[in-house]
Design brief:
Elements lengths: L1 H21 L3 E3 L1 H11 L1 H22 L4 E11 L2 E3 L6 E3 L2 E15 L3 H67 L5 H36 L7 E3 L16 H11 L1 H21 L5 E13 L6 E2 L4 E9 L7 E8 L4 E2 L4 H7 L2 E9 L7 H67 L5 H35 L8
Parallel strand pairs: 1-6
Antiparallel strand pairs: 2-5, 3-4, 5-7, 7-12, 8-11, 9-10
Helix pairs in contact: 2-4, 3-4, 4-5, 4-7, 4-10, 6-9, 7-9, 9-10
Length: about 475
C-alpha cells in the first residue's frame, strides 16, 4: 500500500513537473519583440502591399512606352442581300466568310505625358517604401513603450513586495511584544490593517503587470493566454548621455533621416510630375501605325470569269447570191473563259494587304477634360505640399515635447532620488523610535507610506526619463536598445 502511494505521488510529481515545463514562459528581448511585431503587424503588411502596388504602377507606366500589337480574326455566315467581297457586287445568297488582321501602333510624342507619368510613379514607389519604414518605426516605438511598461510594472511589484515584507516583519515583532504585554493589542491590529493595505498594493501592481503584458502581447499578435517574460536589463540612468543638443538641432537631424519626411517629400515630387503629365494632354499626339489584313469568301470558290473575254467568229449561213461566201458574226465569247473557283488558302494569299501610316491628333475641344485634369492634379499637388508641412510640424512638436519631457523627467528623477534618500533615512529613524515606543503607529504609518509613494514616483520618473531619451535618440536615426 505504501509503495502504491509512493508510486502515485511520484507520478503526480512528474505530471506537475511536465505541466510546469509546458507552461514555462518565453523570454523576449526588446529587439526580438520589435522584430516580431514589425513582421506580423497588419498595418505593416498593408503598407507592404502598397509598395507592391506602386511598383506595379511604375512598371505599367514604363511599359506604356512600348508599341502595341493586336491580332483579330473572325468567321461566319451572311444571308440575304450583301456584298460579294470578290467582285464588290451586291448578291442575294448565303456567303461564308473569314478574315484576319494584325495591327500595331507606336506612340512617338504626346507632350511628354508618358515620361512625366513614369517619374511620378518612380517618386510614388520611393514614397510608399519610406511610408513602410515610417509605419515600422511607429510600431517600434509602441513596442518599446509597452516593453518598458512591463519592466516598470515588474519593478513596481518589487517595491510593493519589499514594502509588504517590511510590514510583515513589523507585524511579527508587534505580535511578540503584544503577547509579552509590552504593547497594547491595538498596535497589532493597526499593523495588520497596514499589512492588508500593502497586500492590496501588491495585487494592484500585479494587475498592472498583467495589463502591461497583455498590451505587449497584442502588439506582438500573441494569444492572451500565452505566457511571456521580458528581459530585465540593468537600466542605469547615470549611463545615459546628457542632452548636448537643442531641440531645434535634434529636429534638423531628424528631418534628414526620418522616413516620414522622405515619404512626404516624394509624394510632393510625384504630384508635381502628375501636373506636368496632365498638361501634356494639351499637345498634339503623334503616332506611327501599320496593319496586315486578308480575307476569304465562299463566293470566291464558285465558277467565275477570269482573264479577258476572247473574240470569236461564228458561221451563221451563206449569201443567197453566192453560196461560196459565208456569213459570219464576230463577238466576245465568255463561255470559253470560265474556270473553277479560288481555294481558301489561295484567297488568303491573293487578298493579303499591308498598310502603314503616321497619325497626328490635335486636341481642339474635348469638353474641357484636359483643363479639369490639370486643375485636379494641381489640387492634389497642393494637398501633398500641405501634408508635407503637417508632417514636419508634427515632427517638430513631437521632438519639442519629447525634449521637454526628457528635461523635466530628468529633473523629476533627480528630485525623486533625493527625496527617497531623505525619506529612507527618516523612515529608519522613525522605525527606531517606534520600536522603543517613542512614536505612535500613525507617525510610523505616515513615514512608511511616504517612502512607498516616493519610491514609486522615483521608479516612474526613471522609466519616463529612459523612454523619452530613447525617443530622442530614435528621432536621430539610432535604434532603440536597452543596452
Amino acid at each position: 500500500m505504501n509503495n502504491r502511494k509512493k508510486y502515485l505521488g511520484a507520478l503526480a510529481g512528474l505530471l506537475l513537473s511536465f505541466g510546469a515545463t509546458a507552461q514555462e514562459a518565453e523570454v523576449w528581448s526588446l529587439e526580438e519583440a520589435i522584430q516580431h511585431a514589425v513582421s506580423n503587424n497588419l498595418t505593416v503588411e498593408q503598407a507592404r502591399l502598397d509598395v507592391q502596388q506602386s511598383e506595379i504602377n511604375l512598371n505599367q507606366a514604363r511599359h506604356n512606352q512600348l508599341p502595341t500589337f493586336n491580332a483579330n480574326t473572325q468567321a461566319g455566315f451572311n444571308w440575304g442581300r450583301s456584298i460579294d467581297p470578290t467582285t464588290n457586287d451586291f448578291v442575294n445568297t448565303e456567303i461564308k466568310f473569314a478574315s484576319g488582321s494584325v495591327s500595331g501602333n507606336l506612340l512617338l510624342f504626346n507632350g511628354f505625358s508618358l515620361r512625366n507619368n513614369i517619374k511620378s510613379n518612380e517618386a510614388n514607389v520611393l514614397a510608399s517604401q519610406a511610408q513602410l519604414k515610417a509605419i515600422s518605426n511607429n510600431i517600434t516605438l509602441s513596442v518599446a513603450n509597452q516593453y518598458l511598461n512591463v519592466l516598470f510594472a515588474k519593478e513596481q511589484i518589487r517595491i510593493a513586495e519589499s514594502q509588504l515584507e517590511t510590514t510583515s516583519e513589523q507585524v511579527d515583532r508587534t505580535r511578540r511584544l503584544v503577547d509579552a504585554g509590552v504593547l497594547p493589542a491595538s498596535n497589532l491590529l493597526e499593523f495588520q490593517a497596514q499589512l492588508a493595505s500593502n497586500r492590496r498594493d501588491l495585487i494592484q501592481a500585479e494587475n498592472s503587470l498583467a495589463i502591461a503584458k497583455l498590451n505587449l502581447k497584442q502588439l506582438l499578435r500573441l494569444p492572451a493566454e500565452e505566457e511571456i517574460e521580458v528581459e530585465s536589463p540593468d537600466l542605469d540612468v547615470a549611463t545615459l548621455d546628457v542632452l548636448e543638443q537643442s531641440s531645434d538641432e535634434i529636429y534638423q537631424n531628424a528631418e534628414q533621416v526620418l522616413p516620414q519626411i522622405e515619404s512626404a517629400d516624394k509624394s510632393v515630387e510625384s504630384s508635381e510630375y502628375s501636373v506636368e503629365s496632365a498638361r501634356g494632354e494639351y499637345y498634339p499626339t503623334l503616332s506611327l501605325g501599320g496593319s496586315l489584313r486578308t480575307n476569304y469568301s465562299s463566293l470566291g470558290e464558285s465558277r467565275t470569269l477570269i482573264g479577258d473575254p476572247i473574240m470569236v467568229v461564228d458561221t451563221v449561213g451563206y449569201l443567197a447570191s453566192d453560196q461560196s461566201e459565208l456569213v459570219v458574226i464576230e463577238g466576245l465569247d465568255f463561255e470559253r473563259n470560265i474556270e473553277s473557283g479560288i481555294g481558301v488558302w489561295q484567297q488568303f494569299d491573293e487578298n493579303f494587304s499591308q498598310s502603314a501610316f503616321i497619325s497626328l491628333n490635335i486636341p481642339i475641344l474635348n469638353g474641357f477634360r484636359t483643363r479639369n485634369n490639370v486643375q485636379r492634379a494641381s489640387i492634389n499637388q497642393r494637398r501633398a505640399e500641405l501634408q508635407a508641412l503637417q508632417v514636419r510640424q508634427d515632427l517638430r512638436q513631437s521632438i519639442e515635447t519629447a525634449y521637454t519631457d526628457v528635461v523635466t523627467s530628468s529633473e523629476s528623477f533627480e528630485a525623486s532620488q533625493q527625496q527617497v534618500e531623505s525619506l529612507e533615512e527618516a523612515f529608519r529613524a522613525t522605525e527606531k523610535q517606534y520600536n522603543v515606543g517613542a512614536l505612535n503607529f500613525v507617525d510610523y504609518q505616515l513615514a512608511s507610506n511616504n517612502l512607498f509613494r516616493a519610491r514609486s514616483e522615483l521608479l516612474r520618473a526613471r522609466f519616463e526619463y529612459i523612454f523619452k531619451k530613447k525617443i530622442l535618440e530614435f528621432y536621430q536615426g539610432q535604434p532603440i536598445t536597452l543596452d
